[in-house]
Amino acid sequence: MTTVAVPRADAPGAFGATDHKRVAVRMALTAVAFFAAGGMLALVMRAELAEPGLQVVSTGTYNVLFTMHGSTMVYLFVTPFALALGLYLIPLEIGAAETAGPRWALAGSWLLTLGGLSMYAGFLTRNGAAAATWVGFDPLSDAVNSPGEGMDLWILGVALAALGEWIVGLCILLTVLRKRTPGMTMLRIPVFAWAMTVTCLMVAFAFPALIAAMGLLWVERQWGGIFDSSEGPVAYQHLFWFYGHPVVYVMFFPFVGAVAECVSVFSGRRFFGYLAMVGSLLLFTSLSMSVWAHHMFTIDGVTVKYFSLLSISLAIPAGIEYVDMIGTLWGGAVRLTTAMLFALGFLVQFLVGGLTGIFVGSSVLDYHVNNSYFVVAHFHYTLFAGSFFGAMAAVYLWWPKVTGTLLREGLGRVHFWLSVAGANLTFFPMFLLGRDGMTRRVADYPGDQGWNLENALSSLGAALIAVSLLVFAVNAVVSLVFRRPAGDDPWEGHTLEWATSSPPPRHNFDRALPPIRSYHPLYDLRQGETGEERAESSPESELAKAGPEEHS
Amino acid sequence: MPNTQDAYGDVEGVFLPVAVGVFVLVAGAIVVLALRGRRRTDPGQRANNVPLELAIVAVLAVTAAILVTISFSAEDRIGSAAVSPALRIRVVAAKWRWRFEYPAQRIAIQGVEGRVPTLVVPAGREVEIEGVSLDVIHAFWVPELRFQRQLIPDRPTRFALVFPRPGFLSSGRCSFFCGLRHQDMRFGVEVMTPARFRAWAQRA
Fold it and tell me: CB neighbours of A167 closer than 8 A, spacing ≥ 6?
């Protein structure tokens, strides 16, 4: 150990502590702050679109709003929040005292913050913040079409954030590979840990493409000569989407993992089909690195059949995950806690996003709905109605571990049902609008197209989402001020993070770990306590033992 | 003939019912199992069922194969443009207006500030369009035809379209974000009977 134990004042401690839990919590809080900012931008957009005509902002401002909304949510909220979950939980779940590369993780988290501040600093420049979409399409983002420092600050910000995320992702990946406690084989790490592992594999291999794209874009803006040929804009899209598709799964898998933990803990059952789940995550990962150009079906000359085939094939691993989740619920003694409600909400609503994903995976269907509100509806069903619900399931599940106090279940249920109403009211009408011909990224639309009702409903839904988030904020404050101690294991968890105090001490475990013979060591411990003899897990013995489970 | 409307309809006619069916089945299972599970006190022990899982993988693979086949066959029909189309039109996109050129007929229709231009085409005939952009990426989208294409600077994009029925379509638009006044970049489509189109082409 080369760590020098020099006592330090408190202020540097808050900014420079290398404890993975403190870094992760600060990273998550930063991400939440950016989420609040990005959410405000969305509310202004929905206010503008509530009725035809320009009422709230100018066209130019609107273009900044959707660019910064998308950039914030992808680069500064969902990805960092997912990585923060991993950074906090992975060492705990695998019985490690520390993350791999703690100082690297610290540096990564600060690069991320710096990147976000750089992007938002664009608002302080004369031409305003970037307005060339979250993708930064060339040539729209070049010096001629997007003059001003706002665009430069955006490029710098995206590159810094991506670099920070890449570093943190590598730390988590190395933690899983190198820091597992004795007995914790790769096939005994929890489902969430597997989800984070494949997430970080994608971060490791896809994020450098984004950093490269930003570097090239910056050179293009200064001196030109990068994307000048007629294939330049196509090359930029290839480079960007090589990052831009895998990142969709980076923003999805960690929450699938969290939901899997919720479903198995709150069904009182071991996760069903662990091996199939691991296999499907690996298959998912390899496919997700190979489908990027389905974002480019409408470009002449793209090999649409190849990308369409692989995109539709994603239904196979996705189907396996759903079967495993349903298999876990089947025969479970279900406790509908708020965490479980959000987990089930994730499963049902993400399904809409996933199925419409298969829909746009067909090139012929994509020729119509590409760049329409249909696509906006599709990815908000995956990211908001899906991932965000998964993130809330994770928050309700692990809040007691991180803070040592319980959230209120009553407020939680109000939060959940308002979120369900808000998400569906906001995003479902967008399917109809898109199919009917409304393009995305427009501040205004003609009043005679029959789109007024859908837009008004969608804006109303956005307001409901805002209210639901306020309810959560109240819940968080109530929980922290009027503390109800959570204890070590309020949910009867299955995994090692529940075998230590809440919050865990500096080096995570101040007591001996339970024996690790499976991916659910605490579940095994409880089964032992109740005197139930369990044979060493082998599929045959389990098949022999398990009776028909449908009746009860 | 590349009838994009029919191709889209054929594929959607399979994909949409399959999606709705899967949704009802899976979401229904989740809700029912969660509600029934609330009354249970002794949870099941079973942690896998290999034959069942393999069977489901097979069902998923077969379904995906069918969907891919249907999509590919429609894709082939769209891609099969005639060697000598009835009409060639050059579509020029620039921030933030459209220009439609008919080289053989020596006609050009130019959109101007504040007035949406109209693309004039014959009904039921194959029209070859060569699209090009003069500045940033734009996209040519006629929602009624269920078809769009990105137009990239200096990279001519060719595609064939059939406008099935005569009538006026008001919803042509640029679907690729192209800057400040992207939303104003619209056009109408006047679909004429072939005889009327011939008369129009001669008069213009």
Answer: A104, A105, A107, A108, A111
**Per-residue confidence (pLDDT) for residue A3, from 0 to 100:** 52
ipTM of the complex: 0.96
* Of A461, A468, A390, the residue nearest A430 (C-alpha): A461
Q: How many CB atoms lie within 10 A of CB B32?
A: 11
Dist CA A307 CA A302 (whole Å):
9
At A97-148, the pLDDT tens digits run 999 999 999 999 999 999 999 999 999 999 899 999 999 999 999 999 999 9
**A91 and A180 in contact (C-beta within 8 Å)?**
no
Measured between beta carbons, the chain B residues lying within 8 angstroms of A441 are 177, 182
Domains of chain A: 18-533 (1.20.210.10)
Chain A residue with minimum CA distance to B16? A359
Mutation for testing the B interface, residue in A62, A364, A540 having most B CBs under 10 Å: A364
Output the DSSP codes for A121-142.
HGGGSTT-S--STTTT-TTTTS
Cα–Cα distance for residue pair A209/A56, rounded to 1 Å: 37
- Rounded to 5 degrees, what are φ and ψ at A539? -50, -40
Instruction: Extract the tokens encoding A369.
Output: 């709905």
Put simply, the answer to whether A267 touches B43 (Cβ < 8 Å) is yes
Whole-structure pTM value = 0.94
Q: Chain A window 336-355: which residues touch B at a Cβ cutoff of 8 Å? A: 336, 340, 344, 347-348, 351-352, 355
pLDDT tens sequence across B112-153: 887 899 999 999 999 999 999 999 999 999 999 999 999 999
| pLDDT confidence of residue A548 | 41
Q: What are A415-466's pLDDT values in tens digits?
A: 999 999 999 999 999 999 999 999 999 999 999 999 999 999 999 999 999 9
Q: Which of B71, B132, B147, B168 to mutate to test the interface with A (most CBs of A within 10 A)?
A: B71
pLDDT digits (tens, 9 = 90+) for A62-109: 999 999 999 999 999 999 999 999 999 999 999 999 999 999 999 999
Q: What is the Cα–Cα distance from A334 to A417, expressed in whole angstroms?
A: 19
Q: Which of residues 424-453 of A touch B (CB under 8 A)?
A: 436-437, 439-445, 449
Confidence of residue A412 (pLDDT cuts 50, 70, 90): very high
Q: Domains along chain B? A: 4-79 (no CATH), 87-203 (2.60.40.420)
Distance CA A31, CA A264 (A): 28
Q: What whole-number distance in Å separates Cα of residue A294 and Cα of residue A519? A: 36
Distances from the Cα of A376 to the Cαs of A357, A360, A400, A420, B17, in angstroms? 11, 12, 35, 18, 21
Number of H helices and number of E strands within chain B?
Answer: 3, 10
CB within 8 Å: B153 and A359:
no
Give residues 48 to 87 of B whose Cβ lies within 8 Å of A: 48-50, 53, 56-57, 60-61, 63-64, 67-68, 71-72, 74-75, 78
Is the Cα torsion angle A272, A276, A278, A281 positive or negative in sign?
A: negative
Amino acid at site B180: L
Determine whether the interchain pair A327/B49 forms a contact, defined as Cβ–Cβ distance below 8 Å.
yes
